[in-house]
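[step 3/7] fold_predict: job queued, chain A
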Amino acid sequence: MNKKLSNIIFYIVVFLLIGFAISNFLFANQPKP
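[step 4/7] structure written:
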């Protein structure tokens, strides 16, 4: 497998995980209406 391609996939996965964690954190801290 191409090294550059695997690096790109790795960064995309990390970015998605971080975004998912941040969105969960923000939604969990929202005050209930």
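[step 5/7] annotate
The two ends are 50 Å apart (CA to CA).
Residues 11 and 17 are 10 Å apart (CA to CA).
exit 0
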